[in-house]
Write a structure and sequence with these properties.
mainly alpha, 3 helices, rod-shaped
């Protein structure tokens, strides 16, 4: 039971870290379109338009977290021996 809890804990932490890192990268790479914003300024919309992320992004992050979790479990097993 302990190994399942360790696996779940490592997976959750790695998933959270990768989600935050992906969000930071998306934020750093975001470039607002000033000319389009200026043309829409007449309507004074209260909505914020951001680029749409790929639907595969959470899946890729989950698979990467799974790989990291398996790698860390193997590393922890080798250290314990």
């Amino acid at each position: 039971m302990k190994k399942y809890l360790v696996f779940a804990g490592i997976f959750c932490v790695s998933f959270l870290v990768l989600q935050v890192a992906a969000g930071m990268i998306w934020t750093l790479l975001y470039t607002p379109d000033i000319s389009a914003a200026w043309q829409q300024a007449g309507a004074l919309s209260s909505e914020t338009a951001l680029i749409k992320a790929s639907a595969a992004s959470p899946f890729i992050i989950a698979v990467t977290s799974l790989v990291v979790t398996f790698g860390l479990r193997l590393l922890l097993k080798r250290i314990a021996m």
